[in-house]
Amino acid sequence: MKTSPLFFLVTLGTLLAATACSHLDLTPESDPERVVTGTVNLRADLTLPPDAVLVVRVIDPAGIGQVRAAAVKNDLPVTAGDRAMAVAPVEQVLGEQTIPAPTGPAVPFRIEYHADDSLMRHGLNIDARISYGGRVRFRTANAHVLTLNNASYSHEIWVETAR
Prior knowledge:
Elements: H1 5-21, E1 33-41, E2 53-60, H2 64-73, H3 78-87, E3 92-100, E4 106-114, H4 117-122, E5 124-132, E6 135-140, E7 144-146, E8 154-161
Parallel strand pairs: 1-8
Antiparallel strand pairs: 1-4, 2-3, 2-5, 5-6, 5-7, 6-8
Helix pairs in contact: 2-3
């Protein structure tokens, strides 16, 4: 039995259209003004000097927000900016809290930041650093990723000796 090329093309077009429609996301965007809370955890036996400063930041590690802003400002398509960022990624700080003289093995933090859903789907990082004596002494050793799925939870960030 021989099938007509027109029948084949119509069938293929229908399958492609049905596949494309199955990936539509009809969920409304959430409010881009967000807050993340949690604790920065230190070793229990660690006592910090009085001049210690803890800085906790929410970071866009790939600088995607900067790429979008540059594309809108310069009327460039986002893809052109993406290629440029692939060569030289720049992390962007979206929110930050500075805590002078942190005490205790668990230091609470609260950071307000602005990130739309597409940026949250990409994933952000929470970074913590403790410095004193003019040097960073402790920092997060492993990336702590912040996404749409875990943004509303309290986060535990562990810091280790900076090397």
